[in-house]
Structures are given as C-alpha cells and as structure tokens.
Amino acid sequence: MRFLHTADWQLGMTRHYLNGDAQPRYSAARRAAVAALGPLATDLGAEFVVVSGDVFEHNQLAPREVSTALEVMRGITVPVYLLPGNHDPLDASSVYTSALFSSEKPDNVTVLDTAGVHEVRPGLQLVAAPWFSKAPTTDLVAEVLDGLQADGVTRIVVGHGAVDILVPDKDRASLIGLGAVEAAIARGAVHYVALGDKHSRMSVGSTGRIWYSGSPEVTNYDDIEPDPGHVLAVDIDDDGAVKVDPHRVGAWRFMSLKHSVDNSRDVADLDINLDQMPDKERTVIRLGLTGSLTVTDRAALDTCLDRYARLFAALVPWDKQTEIAVMPADGEFDDLGIGGFAAAAVEELVSTARAAGDDAEDARAALALLLRLAEGGAA
C-alpha cells in the first residue's frame, strides 16, 4: 500500500516583503506544488493523499482563495484527506464548515473533522487528531492513540503540532508526546505517523515511522527551514514494514546569506555571487553584510543592491547580521572638480561624516549621493 503524506500547504499565505508581482507568482507556485500531487500520485500508484494540517493559512480567506484551492484538489483525482491544524482549526469560524467550502468541495476530498478512526477501506484506517481551537489544552495525538491495539488493521496516524523532544518548552499542553507515539508503534497498533507543523522534512525518533513531510513549497529562510519543498511517498507492506521516499515539488528558494564587504573587491565579489544565482524571480535573499567601507565603495554597494532588488523576488536586509561602518577616505573627494563654497561644504560633510555625532550618518548619505550624481548615477 502506498500513499502521499503532505502538510502545511497554507494556501492564502502572503509574504509582505515580496516585490511587485512576486506575491501573486508565489501564491500560484504554492497552488502548483499542490497540483503536482495529482500526477505524482498517478505515477507512483498512490491510493490517497493525507494532508496533516494547515491546508489554509487561516480561516478568514477571500472566496477566491477557497475556490481555487478546492479546484486544485479536484485535479488530484485520488482521495484527499484534510486535517484541520492550528492555522485552520475547526472553530466557530472554520473554513471547513463555511457554505462556500461545503458547496464546492470535490467528491474526492474528505475533512478529518472528528478525532479518532476513519476507515479508508477494510483493513486500512486513518487515526485523526484534528485541532478544534488554536490552543489545545491536551496532547491531541495521545488521546486518539489511547486504547488502540494490534488487530491486523493497518493504521496511519494523522496529527499536527510539535513533538515534545523538538522544543525547549516542555510544559506546553498541546505538545505531542513521543513516548506515547512510539509505544503505539511498538505494540503494533499504528504503522506510520504523518505529522504537520514543521515546514521542513524531518524524521522524528528512532523508528523511521514518524515524519514531518514539511511544506510542499518553501515558507521561510533556509537557516530556519532547511529542507522544504517535498511530499513523502510512504509504502507500508503486508508485514507492516515502512519505506519513505521524498519527492520534490517546490520551485522557490528563501536563502539567508552573509557577506563581508571591506573594499571594492568585496563589493565586486558580492555582485558576482548574486549575478550567478539562478531563478532569481523565484528566489528570496535575506542578506547580512558586515565590514567597513569608504563612501565611494558604499555607493557602489548601494548601486549593486538596488539592481538585484529589482531582479530577485525579494532582496531583504538581514538587520541582525548587518553592520557596515562608512568612513570617508583621505582624498576621496579631491577630484570632483568643484571649488569655492561647494568645496568648503564638501569638506564640512567629510568632517561631520568622520565624527561620532548624530549627524554623521546623514553626512555619509549626502556624500554618497554626491558621488553618484558626480558619476552620472541614479539618485
């Protein structure tokens, strides 16, 4: 038996830092990653798809978001089982109980809206732990495992949330206790645990049967979310043995980069590195820069960053990893071809820029602008 495990589609997600038309393209890419599950299920012979929570970004979505999401699910053709998670819980405002969702839900889509056993076919069950609020007060997975015993039925647990060994806050009531899950596996009551919440693909514990699939399209930077963009193909054979294979469906990248800039050569190296990155329209860069530059080199750096901010889906300053000191070099403004009052004003700006007062940053910005204008660059 083979099925696809996915989670955290979060359809309707926005990223405020995306440039221009990048947000609509990103939203389309998230739907495309879901649509890719249809051909993949056909190619692999998967019986069904389980989505382990957070199908939607939240419950208050525009009607178009709900309709386009359901249309994408319709195209998957095999049965699709949706688990409400912390972003889209089954509360009073749930998208799953809305008139629009109910009227347009395809026949192949089932919401796992009750806790406990859902029969897929004789001998195969899903054990669901849906969220009914954003702040559960108990371990929802442990509750549905309680009392399950080995009886020849193949069972797949579908849960959402953080496993207790992965977070420092062990007192959170909603944490999934690894001990209870592994005990259920050990006694043969369940065979695979399909989890959502972590957006990076991850195996938990030592059994090889407890997995986060990660989000099928990236949602955060690679230092936070190192392995997104996959769906898991899970095989459970007649003896209960499990095999898990990842398949990439995502197309975007969110990357965190650090670069030292202390001279014009470093700025040129940064330019080359950014230039050589492929798929700029599908790449978001969070850039941390450290170093000490002359006003001239800082102006060159700004010109470089301005260019790539237009080319990438987003080029975002990494404020916590950025610290650049700008200091005018001796003779840096001697060749401007100005004299009299203008030359005296430049000298005063240079003096102010070298000081440590509150006006130093404004003086450095003014000098950088002066250099760009003198060189015929854009203001």
Automatic annotation (TrEMBL):
<protein>
    <recommendedName>
        <fullName>Nuclease SbcCD subunit D</fullName>
    </recommendedName>
</protein>
<feature type="domain" description="Calcineurin-like phosphoesterase">
    <location>
        <begin position="1"/>
        <end position="170"/>
    </location>
</feature>
<keyword id="KW-0540">Nuclease</keyword>
<dbReference type="InterPro" id="IPR050535">
    <property type="entry name" value="DNA_Repair-Maintenance_Comp"/>
</dbReference>
<dbReference type="InterPro" id="IPR014577">
    <property type="entry name" value="UCP033093_metalloPase"/>
</dbReference>
<dbReference type="InterPro" id="IPR004843">
    <property type="entry name" value="Calcineurin-like_PHP"/>
</dbReference>
<dbReference type="Pfam" id="PF00149">
    <property type="entry name" value="Metallophos"/>
</dbReference>
<keyword id="KW-0378">Hydrolase</keyword>
<keyword id="KW-0269">Exonuclease</keyword>
<comment type="similarity">
    <text>Belongs to the SbcD family.</text>
</comment>
<dbReference type="InterPro" id="IPR029052">
    <property type="entry name" value="Metallo-depent_PP-like"/>
</dbReference>
<dbReference type="GO" id="GO:0004527">
    <property type="term" value="F:exonuclease activity"/>
</dbReference>
<dbReference type="InterPro" id="IPR041796">
    <property type="entry name" value="Mre11_N"/>
</dbReference>
